[in-house]
Specification:
heterodimer; A: mainly alpha; 13 helices; rod-shaped; B: mainly alpha; about 70% helix
Chain lengths: ~260, ~180
């Protein structure tokens, strides 16, 4: 870089004077420099000595807080199995099948009371309880009230929490009944086991029209008691269904 | 005996060596004071700003790193203080009217002419746009190169060079009127 200095200009500039700061100003600045040197540096720099723990303590507190919040969020998250009906049956089926098998095993054991229970026989009891408890961990932990089982999801494992204090026997028998009731239909039928004969066995899979036809057949065959019960079940199940006059004459008992 | 460079002294002061600061202060006090004084109209105000600049140096000692010459760092702080001052109270130019010419010549006529020339020079310096005057003062008083002026005033080298050339041309023109 070329020097832009001009000797003539520089000389004239020097002639302007050689002012200096007053002595008092020098003293004030030097005193400030002394005071600053005696004091520790600004607090925003990395703390040293006995203040070092501030940073460690702060970092630990932030870490604990983050973990606590994460755990809390995880706990409050609704159980996807309890909400979505589809994945739930798979697990509850497994539990129920296992419980059913255990129920049979228990009954066999009761038939042979002299045979002592081995550890191996006792162990599945605990497994049953664990299986029965397993499908609804989120609800039992968070205290959330589950919605009642919908019509489309009869196999939702809602009864599982109540099975916890039960014995394996009662759980197994209940599960057995559930499995029977659940078999082919898409909707739960109150008192489904009460349906009689062919109607009882196949009603769950039938449409309302087909069901009425079956009832009419029963009536035609003279099985009036069965037809009456089936009709009562039908009306309970489909309270809004309008039966045509023609069909009504076929399904109702003649007076 | 080797004189410690400014950067070394500042690092020593950062480590708590007050004597290093005293040496540094002694080296730069007069030049910095004149730089401020000739940028500001009022002496009292110049003294105040001068003190503020050194206080900033003291406060910033912990973050000082010798990435550039200490002089550049010092005058960068000074530049910022001046800019703050200009923003606060509007631009005020240094008045050099009361500067007297050293009477080397016993001839009253020569003395009067010299005084007149210096007054014209002072007036030309006063009339310079602030950026040009600052560039000139940084070059002439602080001894900064064009690159260092650019760094201290947060501009580029081309701009600093241009300002300095314009300032020098105007001041020379004022002297050539003799």
């Amino acid at each position: 870089m070329t020097d832009e200095r001009d000797p003539k200009v520089s000389r004239r500039y020097r002639e302007l004077g050689a002012e200096e700061p007053p002595r008092e100003l020098d003293q004030a600045i030097l005193s400030a420099a002394h005071r600053a040197a005696d004091k520790p540096h600004a607090p925003l720099v990395t703390p040293a000595g006995r203040h070092r723990w501030y940073f460690a303590f702060g970092a630990a507190a932030i870490l604990v807080l983050a973990v606590a919040v994460t755990v809390q969020v995880e706990r409050q998250r609704p159980d996807p199995e309890a909400i979505a009906a589809s994945p739930a049956p798979a697990r509850s089926d497994q539990a129920e099948a296992f419980a059913y098998k255990q129920g049979e095993q228990k009954q066999a054991e009761r038939a042979e009371p002299s045979k002592p229970l081995s550890d191996a026989a006792k162990k599945p009891d605990r497994q049953v309880r664990e299986f029965a408890r397993d499908p609804t961990p989120a609800a039992s932990q968070s205290g959330e009230t589950k919605p009642p089982p919908s019509v489309g999801a009869p196999s939702a494992p809602a009864p599982a929490p109540s099975a916890m204090p039960e014995s394996a026997d009662s759980a197994a028998s209940r599960n057995e009944a559930d499995m029977r009731a659940r078999a082919p239909q898409a909707a739960p039928l109150p008192q489904a086991g009460a349906l009689e004969g062919r109607v009882a066995s196949s009603a769950l899979a039938l449409s309302p029209e087909r069901l009425l036809e079956r009832i009419a057949e029963l009536r035609k065959e003279g099985r009036h008691d069965e037809a009456d019960k089936a009709l009562a079940e039908f009306r309970q199940r489909y309270p809004d269904y309008r039966i045509s006059e023609e069909m009504l004459q076929k399904v109702e008992r003649k007076k | 005996m080797r004189e410690a460079p400014d950067e070394e002294l500042m690092l020593a002061y950062r480590g708590g060596d007050v004597r290093a600061f005293e040496t540094l202060y002694t080296r730069h006090r007069a030049r910095l004071f004149r730089f401020v004084l000739r940028s500001i109209k009022l002496r009292a105000l110049a003294e105040e700003l001068y003190q503020e600049i050194w206080m900033r140096v003291i406060e910033a000692r912990a973050s000082y790193a010798p990435t550039a010459r200490f002089t550049t760092w010092l005058y960068t702080i000074a530049h910022h203080r001046l800019v703050d001052h200009w923003r606060r109270g509007g631009l005020t130019l240094a008045s050099l009217d009361d500067h007297d010419v050293p009477s080397d010549s016993p001839d009253p006529a020569q003395h009067a002419q010299a005084r007149e020339t210096l007054a014209r020079f002072a007036a030309a310096l006063e009339r310079l746009p602030p950026a040009q005057r600052e560039a000139f003062l940084l070059h002439e008083e602080a001894g900064l190169t064009v690159a260092e002026i650019a760094a201290a005033t947060a501009s580029n080298e081309e701009a600093a060079k241009s300002r300095l050339r314009y300032a020098m041309a105007k001041l020379k023109a004022a002297l050539d009127d003799d």
